[in-house]
Specification:
By secondary structure, this protein is an alpha/beta fold. The chain contains 14 helices and six strands. The protein has one domain: Nicotinate-nucleotide-dimethylbenzimidazole phosphoribosyltransferase (CobT), large domain (Rossmann fold, 3-Layer(aba) Sandwich). Catalyzes the synthesis of alpha-ribazole-5'-phosphate from nicotinate mononucleotide (NAMN) and 5,6-dimethylbenzimidazole (DMB).
Length: 353
């Protein structure tokens, strides 16, 4: 598919429609601001979708799966073969995101970008294989320039399919053993923070395992200290699925498709996308606050306030999917609550409809 350059202009939210939506909220039968973040979400979607009736009915979820060379450093509690096994589980309907997508009536796409335990051709899986895994970034860059471009393009391809399907909202998810290590290395580079600040339990590491993960990230940061801009940091320290997420978020913003961001790993990808193209930021809503240690720092860098805080840290887009019903409720309230005039109820000034 044809893709715009990464730094091409993104669509602009409709400021006039945002003002109309905000004014409409003040006329609904409630004290102004009393529905809190639900009001803000409806107004943001109205501006992004350029409509007085924002919607979140048609949801597209792309889960990008890839393996990581840094798994060789023993940074995960699970073996690397699990990535491929989980891809099978996604399309068999047994994974958390599979259940959530069914319950939401969302379209679920799984994208195989390169797995050590490759399940081969599977219904429901799009093959966009780049290599069996990224390279171990302790020894060299995680990706070649060509591999980075292929991963970014795979993300943009998913957005193109979501747009063709008439989606109202795009959600990106990830699966890849060792990818919290990769996300931590990239976040440290983007934020200038030490790995001890961001390294967390991931798949269930104990304190010693977290210290080891931090030491691995520190080695990688030292090796790639000369990486320049965010795109080069993504190439040296990222992974195929993180790059695909960044490419998807940029493509969505350029095309005018709102994005609901998931947890730690996808938020790091979102930060990379915003650093590459700042016009991406207005198109991002944030689904949940992950229990993973580094998520708060990345959210703070994006000035993001997630909709949910449920102690989740699974990934797979599960947290974002869990926030979709809130967005749907926000849209329903915005569209169908009576105004003071319609209901004949006095507003704060004592005026009646």
């Amino acid at each position: 598919m044809n893709h715009q350059p990464l730094r091409a202009a993104c669509m602009q939210p409709d400021a006039a429609m945002e003002a109309v939506a905000r004014a409409h909220q003040t006329r609904l039968t409630k004290p102004p601001g009393s529905l809190g973040r639900l009001e803000d979400a409806a107004v943001q979607l109205a501006a992004l979708q350029r409509t007085a009736r924002p919607r979140a009915g048609r949801v597209w979820i792309s889960v990008f799966a890839a393996d990581h060379g840094v798994a060789d450093e023993g940074v995960s509690a699970f073996p690397q073969v699990v990535t491929g096994e989980m891809v099978r589980n996604f399309v068999a309907g047994g994974a958390a995101i599979s259940v959530l997508a069914r319950e939401l009536g969302a379209r679920l796409e799984v994208v195989n970008l390169g797995l050590v335990n490759d399940p081969g051709e599977l219904d429901g899986v799009r093959r966009a294989v780049i290599a069996a895994a990224s390279d171990n970034f302790c020894n060299g860059p995680a990706m070649t320039p060509a591999q980075l471009q292929a991963a970014l393009a795979a993300g943009a391809d998913s957005v193109a399919v979501a747009l063709a399907d008439g989606s109202d909202l795009f959600i990106g998810g990830e699966m890849g053993i060792a990818n919290t290590t990769t996300a931590t290395a990239l976040a440290c580079a983007l934020l200038g923070l030490p790995p001890e600040r961001l390294a967390g339990a991931g798949t269930g590491l104990d304190a010693a395992g977290i210290r080891h993960k931090a030491s691995v990230v520190a080695r990688a940061l030292q090796r790639h200290a000369g990486a320049g801009d965010a795109l080069e940091q993504l190439r040296c320290l990222g992974g195929f699925e993180i790059a695909a997420l960044a490419g998807a978020f940029i493509a969505a913003a350029q095309a005018g498709l709102p994005v609901l961001v998931d947890g730690y790993i996808t938020t790091v990808a979102a930060l990379a996308a915003v650093r590459i193209n700042p016009g991406v930021r207005p198109w991002l809503l944030f689904g949940h606050r992950s229990r993973e240690r580094g998520h708060d720092a990345v959210l703070a860098a994006l000035q993001a306030e997630p909709l949910l805080d449920l102690g989740m840290r699974l990934g797979e887009a599960s947290g974002a999917a869990g926030a979709v019903p809130l967005l749907r409720l926000a849209c329903a309230l915005h569209a169908t609550m009576a105004t003071f005039e319609q209901a004949g109820v006095s507003d704060a000034t004592g005026a009646r409809g």
